[in-house]
Amino acid sequence: MSDPFSDWSVPPVGITGSPLDRADHPRRDPAAMIALRARPDARWLVMDDLKPVLTQGDRPDILWAYRSDVPHTATSVFLGLAPDRDGGAPRFAAACSGAELVSDFGGVIVDARAAAVQLGDGRAEIVAQARSLLDWHARHQFCAVCGGKTEMAKAGYARTCLGCHAEHFPRTDPVVIMLAIKGEHALVGRQPNFPKKFFSALAGFVEPGESLEEAVARELFEEAGIRTARVRYLASQPWPFPSSLMIAAFAEAVNVDITIDADELEEARWVTKDEVRAALAGTGDWFAPPPMAIAHTLLQAWVED
To answer: What is residue 213's three-state secondary structure?
Structure first.
């Protein structure tokens, strides 16, 4: 059998590459978590209405707050441990408004999507992790089994029902995002809510009892009337709006005639590699997704193949 990884080349994927060790073992030990919170090098990423607080200036960074800056009543979750070069310092996230902060530590509140663009590296994944976890806790205050009140457990990676004691864990919704390929052309589309002239790969949620390959085939047929043969996985990306996992793939199209589902798409078109290169460079007659989006990675991988 030939090496299955020998020709595997994936362009950079946005919102990935976090430097943090998520450190599963301390999460299960309340005493260990108390000790980590008490360390003088422990820091908190503050999320105000799920928007991160960043440093000001031309090169923004996460503004890591001291424990004394964050109110004790704030919802707080453990993110992980910094790399050894940074002393393995504990990192947390807290949900609180600027008015609740114990002190004004000089940051600026930034929309999470804008932060992902501005940070542009593994720090964006830290923001994604914090946003998804804190949003999940805000949405799951009550038990889905008995309706009873729940409380945080395992340093933020679970909730336990105070009534029936059922455990609940953060959920990630799988979404397939695919580039249908037919010869020297790829299919891109635009949703009604997209900015003018903005096109992207087609995407949709995976349904219960469905494989990823089946989801790719179903979504392409439902949205654009395109039937598919082979499907090839490329890469994945966390998408914390609110908590999805984007699973990128190429799909071999069988037909070229497009039949649009007007509820899903406003327009779809077949494009060439030269047209995609121009769009990625910002010189085309349509706009491609930015580098933070895995749709950008799909298009980049196709033109570099």
So the answer is: helix
SS3 category, 22: coil
Count of Cβ atoms closer than 10 Å to residue 65 Cβ = 21
Phi, psi for 248 (deg, rounded to 5): -90, 140
Say if CB 235 and CB 13 are below 8 A apart: yes
Tokens of residue 214, six digits: 């089946």
* Ramachandran area for residue 228 (φ above 0: left; ψ -120 to 50: alpha; else beta): beta
Domains and CATH numbers, the chain: 1-139 (no CATH), 141-171 (no CATH), 173-304 (3.90.79.10)
pLDDT score of 1 = 38
Q: Return the amino acid letter for 265.
A: L
Q: What is the pLDDT of residue 101?
A: 62
User: Where do runs of H (alpha helix) occur along the chain?
Assistant: 24-27, 30-38, 112-119, 122-139, 212-224, 273-281, 294-304
Distance of alpha carbon 158 from alpha carbon 179, whole angstroms: 35
What is the four-CA torsion angle of 256, 262, 267, 272, rounded to 10 degrees? -30
Q: Output the DSSP codes for 148-173.
A: -BEEEEGGGTEEEETTT--EE----E
CA distance 55 to 62: 6
**Using H for helix, E for strand and C for coil, what is the string for 100-147?**
HCCCCCCCEECCHHHHHHHHCCHHHHHHHHHHHHHHHHHHCCECCCCC
Segments in the chain below pLDDT 70: 1-8, 98-105
- Report d(CA 174, CA 247) in Å as an integer: 7
